[in-house]
Write a structure and sequence with these properties.
- By secondary structure, the chain is an alpha+beta fold.
- It folds into 3 domains: 143 residues, Gyrase A, domain 2, CATH 3.30.1360; 82 residues, 2-Layer Sandwich (Alpha-Beta Plaits); 76 residues, Elongation Factor Tu (Ef-tu), domain 3.
- The protein is built from 8 helices and 21 strands.
- The strands form 4 sheets. A 7-stranded mixed sheet has the order 11-12-13-14-10-4-15. It has a 6-stranded antiparallel beta barrel with strand order 16-19-18-17-20-21. Strands 6-7-8-5-9 form a 5-stranded antiparallel sheet, covered by helices on one side.
- It is globular, with a radius of gyration of 21 Å.
Length: 365
Amino acid sequence: MLKQTPFRPYHVALGAKMVPFAGYEMPLQYTGVVEEHSCVRTSAGLFDLSHMGEIEIRGAAALPFLDRLLTNRFSDLQPGAARYTAMCNADGGIIDDLIVYHLDDHLLLVVNAANFEKDLAWIRRHAPREVEVRDVNDRTALLAIQGPSAQGFLAQIYEGEDLESLPYYGVRRASVGGVRARVARTGYTGEDGFELYVDSNDAASLWHAVEGAIKTGALKPIGLAARDTLRLEMKYALYGNDIDETTTPLEAGLGWVVKLDKEFIGAAALRRQKEAKVERRLVPFEIEGRGIPRPGYPILVGGETVGKVCSGTFSPSLRKGIGTGYVNRPHTKIGTELTIEVRGRELPARIVRAPFYKKGSVRNS
């Protein structure tokens, strides 16, 4: 049986098309992908992300443990800050990509919904006795507000330290619409925005704090379909499409979250891969002309298959087909001409510099 988020009744009341996703019943779209996508790029949209998995790490040895468990560095992560990372197996394959938030007295790991049980078991397997690992998934609800107008909207229902002072990848406790929340300046769209973590029992109160803006059109609910087009325009990786346990962070272009000067699970394998040179890379490409690439389509260079499409869609912002795929190292340079084979048709494409969409309002300071 599919799980439901605390916000499901509101999605149904708004006429959302509900679909199975990662074991949950989730809204795919409300009024249409292009309209919802454009709303996030120009104003602000509201996402239910309560399907994401939450795991707390507690104890004096929590940060050293994460340094050994994850690819990024956490020994210097200060309270009130967050950091993106990968979690690898011994061969360097990506078990998951996740965000770690350093809260006042513990760390919160937010993982992909489909990987939650696997991640939790892996973390518990490697945690030392002095580290406590807590499953807080069912106790947590999550709404995200994303878009260039996100701060202006949230400020109307926010009570706490000046919202403008919260940096990108910062997190703090505050009251939102009278509800105690963890407010993080993070997101998956390329736009400025916030993710609001609350107790599941407070989900209804949080929704009521924003529903007036939904009714007036000041804030638009956004489904999974537009979330996918938004993230792909930024070349943000999607687990299960772009990354999994058969791919490494170095192949996926996530080398910036891999600190090879420290010891972590998979470090030895990644050092060997870097020394031998990575044989394939995840590249972004644009279709030249009409056509939409889809996952699994072959990627060719000079008539020879050199890879396959991992993620692909029609970009509402760029009005063209875009995608990602792993291709062999000799063919990974920007400007390389590719051919995407689509049901017997050959679509010309070209490797471009990421992100595809370069006008996002996401904050970098």
